[in-house]
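Encoded backbone
================
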Amino acid sequence: MASQEWEEESWAIYDDRADEHIKIHYGWDEDRGYWIKVMDNRLQMDDGHFVTEMDRFRASVLDGGQEGCYLSAYTGPRGTGKKVRMEVMFDLWDIYKVPDEKKILMECRKMSEREVDEMCEVMEEEEDWSHQSGLATVKNKGLFCPFAHRPNLVRHVCGLTDIISLSVVRPYPNIKGEGLRFPKTNDEYPGATVDDLYGSEFLRDIYLRADKDYKGVYSIPVLWDKETETIVSNDSADMLRWLPNAFDPILPVVHKRVHLYPKDLRSQIDEITAWMQPDLNAGVYKAGGAASQADYDKAVPVVFRALNKIERLIHDNGGPFILGKHISEVDLRAYTTIIRFDPIYVQHCKCNLGTIRHNYPTINNWLKNLYYNVEGFRESTNFKHIKESYPKNQADINPKGIAPMGPIPDIESGVDHNWGLVPVGSIYV
């Protein structure tokens, strides 16, 4: 990478939800290229060290109306292999208001595609496990969770089911301090599987196997390296981006051609992701977890504006996918939320201004086409897990733990392949 002048600087990000400050330092040098360190006093350890410290990242600037920057790096004890993506901070912590924010984006924009690729190659060389068959497993995947659903879709769509094995936790109970639980037998709960590597009882056991001092959240999904016996990643957005082509050297040609983030669509994918993640993927949970009527009233219209955009995108691009003839990352991002919309988000998260099947005919047709006609979507979708997880785990929202019966059917049948004749719906907000 060519030498550039960029002095070390820092700024504070204010998180008004937790009334805390996060301190970020960033810079550039010959050895590391662009680097960034994050210090969050909510993650401070007993010895005074901070859990979150990132020292390398890959970046890409979002084109279009809203700027943003993807950062991917190790965080926490190196042995955990845990990664974070700064996209989450952009989306949920509103750091667009930070005065110095535009400077870091402008500096990132100066990086050439070759320089970014070189940076990624360095990271990939340090994680050489990806080119070895049968050495990885998606552990602790929950069939109920839209974010854990993403890497499982990648397994199917990109032909990785024989390379990456799968273990599935029960959707409930989610026990405080221990996390979700594996079934004791594969017959205990339909769709859930035992931990076939270690016989773990709880999700917590996997995290502690990677790092006995781990004190963070026991989240799903988890990508586990069977050879080094550690966590490679627990970030679904991270996996969605690099996992599709991580195993290309050992895949048949037909699967190597599956590019969910192709160069000719990247600017559109990045632009859509910039609003889809905060407004739809996270938006349903902002509505469902609203602490006040005002918060709820603010959150729900945002969700339906996002659905209105997707409805129009599919129509304008002529289907069968969001960006037209080729499936892409945004289809997977949207599917894992939208397949759950009518069964769970309408009632549990109170996103009830409309439903997919009754108010969005184009999205509904897109959804049915993916489910019935594209390998991996139906196979990775389990409506029992979807309907029983949140209602049985979130007593503050659903005190009696009663799971919804409908809608019936879970998803409608029949796909109209004449996309030009499918009407365009919307919800006025």
Summary: The domain at 137-245 is CATH 3.40.30.10 (Glutaredoxin).
